[in-house]
Amino acid sequence: MQGLKEFKNSKGEIILYAGSPDLALLETLSHGTGDIWHSSFEQGYKNAFPELAFQTAIFFWYVSDFDDLDNCVSWRVNPNAFAVRKSVWEILQGFDSDYANLQMRALDFGFQCIRFFGGIPLYVKGLFASEVKENVVISATDRHIFYRKNFKNDHAIYMIYRLGIWNLKEWKAFRFAKKNFTQRMYNQIIPPRKLQEIQGDPSVSYIIPTMFRQDFTLQLLDDLSQQCFLPRQVIVVDATPESERDSLLYQQKQYPFVLTVIWQQSKGSCRARNEAILLCTGDYIVFGDDDIRIPENFIENHIKFLQTYGTGACNGLDIRADHHQQDLNDLQRKLEKFGALRWRAGVTSSFSNANSCVKTELVRQLVGNDINFDGGYGEDGDFGLSLAKIGVTVMFNPFAVNLHLKPPSGGYRWWGTQAKIMGKKRKKQPWELDTPVGLVRPVPSPTVMYGIIKQFSPQLLTEYKHKHFSYYLFNGSKYAFLYRLVRLPYKNIQFKKSVFYAKKLISLGVRTK
Fold first, then answer.
1. How do beta strands 71-73 and 121-124 pair?
2. In what order do the strands lie in the sheet with 394-404?
3. What are the φ/ψ torsions at residue 294 (nearest 5 degrees)?
4. Threshold 0.90, pTM exceeds
5. How many CA within 13 A on the CB side of residue 292?
6. Any idea which of 24-38, 256-270, 273-287, 302-316 has the lowest mean pLDDT?
7. What is the rounded distance in angstroms from the CA atom of residue 472 to the CA atom of residue 481?
8. What are the CA-CA distances from residue 2 to residues 59, 83, 100 (Å)?
9. Among candidate residues 80, 11, 76, 120, the one with its CA nearest the CA of residue 344
10. Contact between residue 284 and residue 357 where contact means Cβ atoms under 8 Å apart
């Protein structure tokens, strides 16, 4: 793009920009988290290009822009008023001139940055004073070029189905894009920043919920005792029934941190974490599952990463073990097989309580986990997205690595597995409330559905429903297609059941105890 101006910050880094930014504010921003900055919400770009939902539905946190925030993640760049690190501009090779519309070029640039290159595009209110609203209009041709370059053809066909299968204009644009362009191959990333040494004397609280896995918890405590940067406090919340636990097990060793053990009386991993959060005294909280192994630089790299990027929350790199008896030597061998893409940092669109680090003040701002998820799934993503919605840039941290053992039994999912049992042997789940499940088991999990309704718009729930049934019909064996087609009315009843329970949870509101 011609005409970009240059601004050199106090560290000598060059920032490119269009429009008239507040240069004093840009100086401050350039030393912080972002790679791209804009003020596009006031300029007509908020929630522009809604057709992205046909590809991502609710599976991308940033499909819709957030409300009532002065700073937040947003990839919707205004080409006439934005700033970008010159190094990032060059790695992404600027705007793609294959699009006829300059607005589409900027939106594609921001989307590539966040989705594929590990970049951090941020909305910053007031960086650009102009509040002149542009009319963002994307042609069908440019839209299909975007889909062709970024996704598989199936997604474009699905978009046509959603917009109207007999829409000849859409089919014409699809054929043009398919004939003239190919899907991009993303084999380069924005390199992660060099981790700086830890500043100050931050303290860390480490939370481990466990159930039927006391041996794995002891193994993790040994790994924690070998950390280069020790946690000051480790809180184990053990829900193993009294008849099946060794109550003296955690007293057999002296650890180089304060170990607190809570024998959980309530049910659910969300309640377990919340009980532990109340006792946390550290500046940061690391959330970990009981069945992981961690190298000695694990906590150190979490704190270094958050301080280097100037943000408050991140996910670490979770590596699945081949079997539950593997160890840290196996983790190292697995890491050696990863290519350069292993180091892609940037904004994440997922969150895992198996390996994450969050500033304690942010955890307390959310109070804790939403216990409406107990007995089901989805609490991790809900917590991470809730952080993003209060303006936190939640990042992926490739430096903090764990090996996830996934033993065949034990863990808090033991309660959740009861949901698959039908009939008299079924144990009531927390999300059933005052309406026990009858003959029809709700699918998807009502807690997953609760998270969708809680976090996303009704329009995106509709897109999720269409995706859900499309995958069911077309992603299985071709020979069983007719069986799936005949079974579709029953699947719809299951879906409605899930929505029913989810809405009952919605009526309760967010609960943390």
1. antiparallel
2. 258-263, 233-238, 204-210, 284-288, 355-359, 313-320, 394-404, 292-293
3. -130, 135
4. yes
5. 26
6. 256-270
7. 9
8. 35, 14, 16
9. 120
10. yes
